[in-house]
Amino acid sequence: MALFLRYRQGTRIDVEANPFEDLRSFLGAVGDEGRPLQVLNERIREELWDLPRPDVRSTWFALLREYFRIHRDEVQDRTGQVQLLVLRVLAQGGSPAEIWGRVLGVMVEHLEELSAWRSSNAAYMAAHWQVERAEDGTYYIERDGQRVEILGARTHEETKLEYILEDCWRKYGHVGRICRLVALFCLYQHFQQNPGSYPLTIRVALPEDAYLHWSWYHLTPIGTPRVPWRPPDRHSDPESLAIDVATSYTERNPMPFPQTAPAERIPQQDFPRQYEQAMETDLRLGDDVEAVITYGGRELRWVNGTRTICPVLIVGTRDHEAREERRLVAEFLSVLCFDADMPITPVMSVICPRRAAPMVHQPRKLADHIYPAKMRPDVGRPLTDARRLALALYREGRSSGSSYYEFLNLYKVLQIRLPGAGVAEWINAHVDDNVPSVTRIRELRQEGVADIAYYLYENWRNAIAHVGREPHVNPDDLETAMRIGRDLPIVRDLARTMIRSALLD
Questions:
Q1: Shortest CA distance to 401 belongs to which of 348, 346, 351?
Q2: Cβ atoms of residues 460 and 488 within 8 Å
Q3: pLDDT interval class at 144 (50, 70, 90)
Q4: Which of 53, 344, 396, 400 could connect to 281 by a Cys-Cys bridge, CB 3.0–4.6 Å?
């Protein structure tokens, strides 16, 4: 049995290929001017199961392709040559200690490029704020010739150090993932030299869609649970490698440690945490990087977006839920949308410790959901006029940024051929057919809701369509937004069932 395993539909696949041989073959093909991804795509053979997957012989080429994709497209041109340099010293082989000694030197030398620091939002904000640190440890900026104390911010060099260290520790950090790749090669080398140090039941599993997030698994006749095992050689542990990178970089770029705080100091009366809301909108507030707006007696920070990053709205909070602040932000965005007559769609939010650079770094476009290029779209029934209408309503609803508008469009799908009481009978007859929403159906019945159709009609369809009588919904109400988020999958699944049913033939 090989040390490295893949699983395909429950079937174990042993990866016997030598990663060093495949790496050297790739480096020989890419040369000095070649494009890594093009070479790798040519060497990867895919086999079709549920989705195309690299075959077992292409495992290490697929791993290298994932390695070159850890940076965004606009950053890859700057980091590609440095990533190749890491691979060239890795390919020289030797003992795990010798391999890591060479790779560590290259990584620390080029850590700013490998971590994508220069293209990060943190670097952008640090350059904008120009924060300085006083002798007493407080942070300040110069504004109109005066020194203004600022909380939740650090100097440019401190911000860079914080960003790089966090990138080493994070599971999806650029440097963290590079360490995981190097650890696999060191692990292979150590296993070849010391196979008896590894129990037969402890093996490395490579996930089919993310080889760099490999884990240790314990093989038993009754299952394959993941286990927090550590290899005998520390150079095969990615966490140990990440620590080496962080400490080596810190020692190479020394900074003074914080001084002891004065015995008496008046605490700043400010918010220890902040609520951040990223938005999809073309609206900018002013020409600067950010604007400060006073609304509802509170100061709101609006960080303008870029071509690739969404704008972020920030407000301070004292608790971990920020219910009042979330309500305030929702109300403010509604007022701003009306006043500017521009669409504003919230896309992501987070509550985090107070800081100058936003925690949210939301791209304007995501292409992470990969669909087979050779797909053959088919809903399983003839495309009648009624089904075409249903599909149009389904797309209109699912593509909307509003849960309420989506619900209304999906409910219309159910009413195309079932007006009046007929739709209620159909809903109650088919509501248990859909696996994705069955958990929510059970919850509603445990809450005493026997007639699901009446519940959906009165609480959502009518409430969304009519505002002149109870119940009606306020899209800015947090509790209502949370409730429709739980109930929306029910009508979504019902709409899919209707589209596939013979009723629309």
A1: 346
A2: no
A3: confident
A4: 344
Long-range contacts from 423-427, C-beta under 8 angstroms, 24+ separation? 423/453, 424/451, 424/453, 424/454, 424/457, 425/453, 426/498, 426/503, 427/452, 427/453, 427/456, 427/494
Tell me, what amino acid is at 115? S
Contact 119, 125 (CB under 8 A): no
How many Cβ atoms from other residues are within 10 Å of residue 485's Cβ? 10
Contacts of 32 (CB under 8 A, 6+ apart): none
- Which residues make Cβ contacts (< 8 Å) with residue 406, sequence separation at least 6? 397, 398, 400, 488, 492
Q: Is 148 exposed, middle or buried (0-12, 13-18, 19+ CB in 10 A)?
A: exposed
Give residue for tokens 């003839």. 382
Q: How far apart are CA 152 and CA 273, in angstroms?
A: 9
pLDDT range class, residue 472, cuts 50, 70, 90: confident
- Over residues 198-235, the pLDDT tens digits come to 999 999 999 988 899 999 999 888 878 889 999 999 99
Assigned token pair, 135: 């002798």
Of 147, 37, 20, the closest CA to residue 87 belongs to 20
How many helices (H) and strands (E) would you count in the chain? 18, 14
The whole-angstrom distance between residue 278's C-alpha and the CA centroid of its chain comes to 14
Mean pLDDT computed over 337-342: 76
What whole-number distance in Å separates Cα of residue 300 and Cα of residue 284? 14
* Beta carbons of 359 and 276 less than 8 angstroms apart: yes
- Going by C-beta distance under 8 Å and a sequence separation of 6 or more, which residues neighbour residue 339? none
Rounded to whole angstroms, the Cα distance separating 415 from 495 reads 10
